[in-house]
């Protein structure tokens, strides 16, 4: 049996277009001898469709389109597996439609309905035959490999988890060289076909790299990463085919995979918005320069236009020198990237507020004016306005950023500021794009200082805390700031487990307060591709929340589980006390009936008295057993041999081994 993996990138939810593309892939796969065709999981509606799956007409369009596609594939004699998220019992379900013999069969829903009647596991992988090969389908390979029934030849794994820079397994074939999948597949003793998507689907990004692995855990075929392809491979049990050596497999390199994932995200997001062009504001800093290089790699230099605005807050010779250097850096960047640069004089900010602004209002009004110019340039150029804000900016200064137009897409919105230096070094390795003066720790520190200064605007600058907060946070290195934010946002660690907490307890607390303070404003920032374990869009807290994690102040952790255990212990203790009281009352009643004095009763209830009672009971039990044994021996020697003997109550049954009446036995 030959399996085909169609690693294709399509517009999310374009049902008719996707079905037409699947049909064309089926024609190509059939020409190469394929019996089974698989397509990526997020094509139809992504992996987090929300309320879309509750729209009955969406389900109608999906089902009818798949039925028409199944009828066309019948002529090709190709079976197709098309995954999609559907609604089952009011909850999302990863479904896989089996297009075979002109029918579209929802395999998991059908099996779930059948298993409800038998009490079997509802979500065990569906298993069926294709061209004499027993095929199982899963969306979680490592879990289901251990639970597959015997006799399966091939598991088709539809990757649903998007790329996560901290999870190497999300890079598909690039993770195999480091040991992922190999051991589990070899232990299960079956073939594995990993259908890895490529492209950006809403805010999820996939990097491709589909592969086929034999039952010994060897990769026998792979698709390229970061691009579309059609991979066809023969599946043959019990026979070793030529494999790809480990040193020939792609190696996972974090910065390279992150960069290429962001390139895909920029390209697909722009196309989804009906444009192939990007416009962005260049400020002479690291993040805006790197964002320009990213847009060039995604869309080409002819489709990227940069905007630079001269700043009017220049009052001293040193500020004049700094402004000239900033403008020169922007021009050098535009020359390196071969993009068009639009230079604009600083607008009159007093016209925006119809008054003379204060000195403190200057930076905020300047950013608002620059945002207006960027919006206008993007409209003229029919381009997507791109923002260069990072995850660090979104964490610390979201309210100030939301007050001005920053664009509609922020490629670095889920990337921390300190990571940009390493990304820029990697990108410059392929040819200098970002000026070398900006690819330094000093450039990162300047950007962090600007983010902290922006965070102190508005609400904070009107309090006595502004200067104190600025002094405390200025002591932290960029890596320390991002380390604390990553632990709090991405890993949800409690305050006591944050890095460097012992040396910078107050600074960590202030960072967490700033994160909580910007909760509402972050929802107005540009959208960003998710490339981490937990983005801000996934980590949303209540917008009006007043609580911040400031630690337990040395106290032990108390949670719901602890409360429940304490209440159970308390209930058991009350039960023991109640039982002791009842026993005391019963003993008092018996003592009164038998004439036992309170002192004697107290002695009987003591540990010594209880011990003597147990010893006496054991001795009495032994005496009773001895007496019964003597009676048995006496009866066996002298008793009658008839089947019945006459007892006090007349004839009674005789135990075959004991020749004495029933009542004597009891």
List keywords for this structure.
20 strands; 44% helix; flat; 22 helices; 666 residues
Structure description:
The chain is of the alpha/beta class and 666 residues long. Helix content is 44%, strand content 15%. It contains 22 helices and 20 strands. Strands 5-4-3-2-1-14 form a six-stranded mixed sheet. A six-stranded mixed sheet has the order 6-7-8-9-12-13, with no helix packed on it. Helix 6 crosses helix 7 (286-299) and helix 20 packs across helix 21 (607-638). The termini are far apart.
Shape: flat
* Poorly predicted parts: 640-666
- The value of Rg in angstroms is 37 Å
Count of helices? 22
User: Structural class of the helix and strand makeup?
Assistant: alpha/beta
Q: Please state the average pLDDT score.
A: 86
What helical percentage do the residues reach?
40-55%
Q: Could you tell me the strand content as a percent range?
A: 15-25%
Distance between the termini: 76 Å
Oligomer classification? single chain
Major sheet details = 6 strands, mixed
